[in-house]
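Submission checklist for the structure archive. All mandatory fields must be present; incomplete records are returned to the submitter.

[x] Identifier: HNH endonuclease
[x] Organism: Natronocalculus amylovorans
[x] Residue count: 210
[x] Sequence attached
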Amino acid sequence: MPRSGKHAPNYQGAKETATCEICASEFDYYPSEKKGLYCSTCVETENWRNTPDLSGEHNGKWNGGKLKLECETCGVPVHRYPSNVGEHGVFCGTECRSAWLSEHYTGENHPHWRGGSSGTSAYGPGWAKMRRRALERDAYTCQHCGTTKEELGRNPDVHHIIPVRAFVEMPVMMVEDAHYLENLVSLCILCHRKAEFGKISQKELKAACV
């Protein structure tokens, strides 16, 4: 028995004609093959293998691109992908991140805090009393931008206009000498960090205490 043509086991009919999607010429192909899209000439000479666009929203992992945010410490603009935004926000660098951790994870803010000596702190005895007096004088409101305790959801920070380290470095002074009321000003977290980085002058801060 002949085993060619229609008698062949895999025979599925004669060739069919298709039109090349690139040059529009007609060509023949077997229907048992994948449907023809390009003629043999275009397959060899044309760029018919289209590389998929995997950038931006075409990427399977696209989730909206980078967000425009502000550094939690100094307030400068930063851009981060949503997946890189932690529960505490974002920081422009390690210095600002360390400053934020120092502010929020020391003393009573630390998860392992078990209390401390009454009336004392890293700033020495009397600091808690002077801090409270500064907050009361400033009506628990940031003296630079006007943000209130209610808007912050917590008390403002109390900032030393002349830094504590300036007193510590003087042989005749002690930490407690930095805690006089005219040297203290209530600031929100953002303004406090701006003041720490010199973005709010001491002259401005002193004027706010008058």
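[x] Structure attached
Curator remark: The chain has seven helices and six strands. The chain has a mean pLDDT of 74.
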